[in-house]
Amino acid sequence: MQRFAVFLIVMIASCFGQYTDPDGAHVDMYFPQLADGGPPAQQWQTSFVFVNPHSSLTAHVQLSLFGNDGKPLGLNLGAGLASVYTFSVLPGGSITLRSSVTSAVTLTGWALAVADIPLQATVLYRYSANGVPQVEVSAPATLPSGQYLSPATHDLGIALVNIYSVQRTFAINAFDSSGSFKGSNTVSLGPLSHTSLTLGQLIPAISTAFSGSVQIVSQSNPTDQFLAWTLNSDRGLIASLPSGRLAWPISHTDRILLVYKKLLAASPSVFSGLGISGVNLNSQTVSLTVSTDQVINAFGHSNGNVQINLALSELVSDSPSELAFVVGHELGHIAQYQRGLTVGGILLPNREQDADLIGLSYLLGAGYDPYAGAGLLGKLYTATGQAGVVASAFDDLIDPHGSFNTRADTMFTILSLACLQPSAAAACATYKSVVHPHLPPSAPLFQSNDSRP
To answer: How many contiguous H segments (helices) and E segments (strands) does the chain have?
Structure first.
């Protein structure tokens, strides 16, 4: 097994700093509000700013614009009138798309940008009077949420988007500074539709001196999610507010897409680092299916399709590194199929342990935590004790329970052996001192000659 651990040395040495994603960088970037045009005395302009934090990969992006009715909205963002824009962002580079303020009436709506690697994205709203800029506010791209909370005044601006292809109804509840309920209203939106109103317009009963908070929830279904954004307005002054979307529960579909695309982008360096040729995993050879099947399971099919059940992502909960190990493991199976292997593996004769080794390499190569694989296997091992929760043949395994029980130990052994190699000592010590500084000295990714406290 030691010779397989040596393959990880390149991954360990190169993983730290491979991805330096800012907090909030994503492959799905939602903008709950856009505004463009208006009469000369009251004009709005929207700018979309994208930054690529990756040091070597170019990002490819598609930005789609939607009107209040959920249909495509044509705006001129510098290259003529269009509702869909495709563009690239160079490694370490940025790009700004700015509306041209050509409409005589104010056009409003929302936007969605989809990229193949995580990007940092921001939207800027500029208000001008007779050609003179008066104020500009910004908001980061966001994700759907099941609830939204925000400070509020009578004139608070609220943007709301129904992300579903059927009508949904949402409740807006207002509370004063002591937490007392002060009023509510409901808003029904058609497929992919958008609205933007002030709190006073939504709940006319609240006083003009109101100061408190607002809560937005789905009324159609408690599990539904939506997009929301609020803009503070007080005595004629407007200002950005922090995002009020709940951090948990997460949007699992968006999390799966983020991890999948991040790992797929890292594939060339991962397999090169492992010394594996004849594997070509990219958007043309691999596809993703996010399944609603109510059983914990995942697959890497011979046709290049990776299937991740939402139930498995929900078991993982809010650990992107554990989810990344699942996706990396299934990509490992696809690599095995590409090499014509249906029983054994590429590096290890045991097919599942071999996919685990590839999954571990993905964690290192894409900047995730290598300990996450053992954490995921531990959760699966625990859940298999409950009949019907985990698929009886998880990942097509005949005895998944027995497999989970042994594979975590194998991964820890491989990590330990890799870090015992002299050429990996410095990288292991650096990784541990920054990411896991308080783990005991006996933990993997630690070297005995590391004298730092």
So the answer is: 9, 20
On whether both 301 and 169 belong to a single domain, the answer is: no
Domain holding 284, by residue range, is 2-20+251-435
The single-letter DSSP state of residue 394 is: G
Single out the residue in 140, 166, 200 at which a domain terminates.
140
Tokens of 351: 């097919």
In a domain, 304, yes or no: yes
pTM: 0.90
Taking the C-alpha atoms of residue 132 and residue 423, their distance in angstroms, rounded to an integer, is 61
How many alpha carbons fall within 13 Å on the CB side of residue 148?
27
Helix (H, G, I), strand (E, B) or coil at 265: helix
Res. 26: pLDDT tops 50:
yes
Whether residue 39 is found in the same domain as residue 8: no
pLDDT given at position 58: 97
The H or E element spanning position 13 is helix 2-15
Q: What are phi and psi of 56, to 5 degrees?
A: -140, -15
Rounded CA gap, 200 and 196, in Å? 12
- Per-residue pLDDT for 428 more than 60? yes
Q: How confident is the model at residue 274 (pLDDT cuts 50, 70, 90)?
A: confident
Residue 377 falls within a domain, yes or no? yes
Q: Within 13 A of 362's CA, how many CA atoms are on the CB side? A: 32
Q: Are residues 164 and 283 in the same domain?
A: no
Residues in the chain: 453
278 HSE (CA, 13 A, CB side): 7
Give the confidence band of 12 by pLDDT, cuts at 50, 70, 90: low
The fraction of the chain above a pLDDT of 70, given in percent, is 90
How far is Cα 42 from Cα 129, in angstroms, rounded to an integer?
Answer: 5
**b/e per residue, 134-165, with b = 16+ CB within 10 A?**
eeebebbbbbbbbbbbbebbbbbbbbbbbbbe
